[in-house]
């Protein structure tokens, strides 16, 4: 299910549900962020410094900054479209620095791959 863009500063409940579903079910997402179409594994979703954010591992699509795959931390309110895909991914990945983000509130975290 595709979700249309939303007003800045206000995240629709449906996006919240879709992100939680994708993380729980370990399903890839397709989203438009900063005008670019991206395909990614959603890993952590919560609040950092009062801003709802999503830590994802982008595996395909468009990128301005680096080669793919790579980690991205995106502001949820800036997601223009979101679609939960049928394709699954194995689960959590090792973080290169061995340090995780410090979340003020964590809504969902993907379980480790076994």
How would you explain this protein's 3D organization?
The protein is mainly beta. It has a single domain (13-88, 104-109), classed as SH3 type barrels (Roll). 11% of the residues lie in helices and 46% in strands. The chain has one helix spanning 13-25; strands at residues 27-33, 36-48, 51-61, 70-75, 79-88, 105-109. Strands 1, 2, 3, 4, 5 and 6 form a 6-stranded antiparallel beta sheet that branches. A hairpin with a 2-residue loop joins strand 1 and strand 2 (36-48). The termini are far apart. The relative contact order is 0.28. The model is unreliable at 1-11 (pLDDT under 50).
Summarize the structure.
The chain is mostly beta strands and 114 residues long.
The helix/strand series, from N terminus to C terminus, equals HEEEEEE
User: Biggest sheet: strands, sense, closure?
Assistant: 6 strands, antiparallel
Mean pLDDT: 86
What are the segments in which pLDDT stays under 50 over at least 5 consecutive residues?
A: 1-11
- CATH T-level fold name: SH3 type barrels
Sum up the structure in keywords.
single chain, 114 residues, mainly beta, SH3 type barrels, 6-stranded antiparallel beta sheet, 1 helix, 6 strands, 11% helix, disordered N terminus
What is the topological layout?
Layout: H1 13-25, E1 27-33, E2 36-48, E3 51-61, E4 70-75, E5 79-88, E6 105-109
Antiparallel strand pairs: 1-2, 1-5, 2-3, 2-6, 3-4
């Amino acid at each position: 299910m595709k979700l249309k863009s939303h007003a800045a500063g206000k995240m629709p409940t449906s996006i919240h549900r879709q992100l939680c579903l994708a993380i729980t079910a370990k399903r890839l997402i397709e989203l438009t962020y900063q005008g670019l179409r991206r395909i990614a594994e959603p890993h952590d979703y919560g609040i950092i410094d009062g801003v709802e954010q999503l830590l994802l591992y982008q595996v395909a699509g468009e990128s301005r900054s680096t080669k793919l795959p790579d980690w991205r931390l995106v502001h949820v309110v800036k997601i223009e479209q979101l679609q939960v895909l049928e394709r699954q991914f194995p689960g959590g990945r090792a973080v290169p620095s061995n340090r995780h983000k410090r979340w003020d509130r964590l809504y969902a975290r993907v379980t480790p791959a076994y």
